[in-house]
Design goal:
This protein has eleven helices and ten strands. With 308 residues, the chain is an alpha+beta fold. It has one domain. The strands form four sheets. It has a four-stranded antiparallel sheet, with helices on both faces. A two-stranded parallel ribbon has the order 3-10.
């Protein structure tokens, strides 16, 4: 086995040991196909108030501008599909990814461990870990490295696994064996497009971020536009509709990451509990959760929007 194959094997074996669902690797180079798509999406203002999406256009498309001398993008998937969901069917809903500990911290720790092993076993390898925290097109890299295909709802989908997972990367200055993309298996299915409560999927593979429930409930700091009243399907933080209806997610299996287990109270809160939530309860239930992004006032705004 040559050193490239040996190093590739080491990284994939270690990724598995750390609990990642899968690991794929691609050559660090300019994302030629994505450039015009990203430009068009921004020009149509589909990022709404997410102005940060306009920044670092070159870095989003070229990993060598993020990590000097980088040769490989190591993409990793981590399952977050829960074994149980919220019990009260009439209660405001939280996206499944936010049930447990904030994924940024959980995954960052795993990525640091992976990079440490690479450096210990291989030698001087420079790189950076990315979890949704820098201008990296996660889904494009994961698709490029054969971990799945980008579905019509613009999320990555993997056969036999579905799409309820986080995507993260290590960008390193080490040459490795590269994986190849898989084919698209969406076929003629339009389940996600048909089910989107706000018609945010404007055409197959294009999501108008400024119409997405996740955008309104997490990213938007101002008042939610009244024209969307009654269209939120009870989502108060994020939205899983396009993934819930995707046929590939019938293969989803519960994660085995204890840190992603929800606070015991979360799943049993009733509609009334949510409508009367206090700041103390918010702090207790979401102490280390991604839901803290909205802050207490933001979550209250979202709940009120559903109720009025």
């Amino acid at each position: 086995m040559n050193s490239k194959a040996k190093h590739t094997n080491l990284i994939k074996t270690e990724a598995k040991r750390l609990g990642f669902l899968s690991c794929g690797i691609s050559k660090a180079q300019f994302l030629e196909e994505e450039a015009p798509r990203l430009e068009s999406w921004l020009n149509k203002n589909m990022h709404g108030e997410m102005r940060y999406m306009e920044n670092h256009f070159d870095k989003r498309l070229d990993p060598t501008k993020l990590v000097e001398g980088s040769k490989s993008v190591v993409s990793l998937l981590l399952n977050y599909y829960p074994s149980e969901i919220q019990q009260d069917k009439t209660a405001p809903k939280i996206s499944k990814y936010a049930y447990g500990r904030d994924y940024h911290f959980v995954i960052k720790d795993k990525l640091k461990s992976l990079l440490n092993v690479i450096q210990e076993e291989i030698g001087e390898v420079n790189g950076r870990a990315f979890v949704d925290s820098a201008p990296v097109l996660d889904k494009a890299w994961a698709a490029k490295s054969g971990l799945g295909w980008i579905g019509k709802h613009s999320n990555l989908i993997t056969q036999q696994v579905g799409s309820f997972y986080f995507i993260a990367e290590l960008i390193i200055d080490l040459e490795l064996d590269y994986d190849t993309p898989v084919t698209d298996h969406c076929g003629t299915c339009t389940a996600c497009i048909d089910a989107c409560p706000t018609q945010a999927i404007t055409e197959p593979y294009v999501v108008d971020g400024s119409k997405c429930i996740s955008y309104f409930t997490i990213e938007l700091k101002e008042n939610i536009p009244t024209e969307f009243k009654g269209q939120f399907d009870d989502w108060m933080f994020g939205c899983d509709v396009c993934q819930d209806v995707c046929p590939w997610n019938r293969f989803s299996k519960p994660h085995n990451e204890p840190l992603f287990n929800p606070h015991p109270e979360l799943l049993f809160m009733t509609k009334k509990d949510w409508e009367e939530i206090t700041e103390d309860t918010f702090k207790k239930v979401f102490q280390k959760s991604a839901v803290k992004r909205t802050k207490f006032a933001g979550l209250q705004r979202n709940i009120k929007f559903l109720k009025d």
